[in-house]
Amino acid sequence: MFARVNGSYYAAIVALFTATLLISNVTASKGVSFFSGSDVFLGPFQILPINTDGAFFLFPLAYILGDVLSEVYGFKATRRAIYLGFASLILTSVCFWIAIQLPSASFYENQQSLETVVGVVPRLVLAGLAGYLVGQMLNSLVLVAIKERTKEKHLWARLIGSTIVGEFGDTLIFCSIAAGVIGISTWTDFINYVIVGFLWKTLAEVLVMPITYRVIAYLKKREPTYAV
């Protein structure tokens, strides 16, 4: 039902998966708001501000790649990739912290900017690690569990079902811990943040599903150890 991980495709997907997580962890430190401070109407309805973070456009890719790994290589192989990503996030945070603590050269004038961009905020690191670990594990577990029942049929159900569960767990945990760090201080903004994040990530999965289908089909055909 799954392919072995000794092929080059698995390594390439894991590398992209890890890179996505590392980049998202940095860009998520920026709070983003659309339709804020202006009255925007859609017919008779006023559009409320949409609160999210700077990783909203990239982070869904991590779940798409997680789905590909789970569908083609199974839970154990995906768990290995998740642990690698987890370790990479910790290493990145430690390296950022060390770089910031090192004494600045007399000609270096960007210490404050460096701290602002990559400064290690314990709550934000914790939010990213906890949300990522729980969300990705749930995503992979649900997809594999559905596949055990449906076999090769109903791939769409596996992709959407696993994303809904994984993204909800990830978004709720991350937002609960990180909201205060990026400036969200009211329940209204927090609920907005959670709902927008969850709906967007789930919608992104649906929108790119045709591409996900093609990637999965490509890998299944070219992985010689994949067994239906």
Biggest β-sheet: strands ordered side by side in the sheet: 1-4
Number of strands: 4
Q: Segments where pLDDT lies below 50 for 5+ residues?
A: none
| Estimated share of beta-strand residues | 5-15%
The first-to-last residue Cα distance is 5 Å
Backbone structural class: mainly alpha
Topology record:
Blueprint: H1 8-27, E1 31-34, E2 40-42, E3 45-47, E4 50-53, H2 60-73, H3 75-101, H4 111-118, H5 122-150, H6 155-178, H7 187-207, H8 209-222
Antiparallel strand pairs: 1-4, 2-3
Helix pairs in contact: 1-2, 1-3, 2-3, 2-5, 2-7, 2-8, 3-4, 3-5, 5-6, 6-7
Structure, described:
By secondary structure, the chain is mostly helical. It has helices spanning 8-27, 60-73, 75-101, 111-118, 122-150, 155-178, 187-207, 209-222; strands at residues 31-34, 40-42, 45-47, 50-53. Strands 1-4 form a two-stranded antiparallel sheet. The chain has a two-stranded antiparallel ribbon with strand order 2-3. A hairpin with a 2-residue loop joins strand 2 (40-42) and strand 3. Helix 1 packs across helix 3 (75-101) and helix 5 (122-150) runs antiparallel to helix 6.
Task: Throw out a few tags for this protein.
228 residues; mainly alpha; Arp2/3 complex 21 kDa subunit ARPC3; two-stranded antiparallel sheet; 8 helices; 6% strand
Question: In a nutshell, what does this entry contain?
Answer:
The chain is mainly alpha-helical and about 230 residues long. The protein has eight helices and four strands, in the order αββββααααααα.
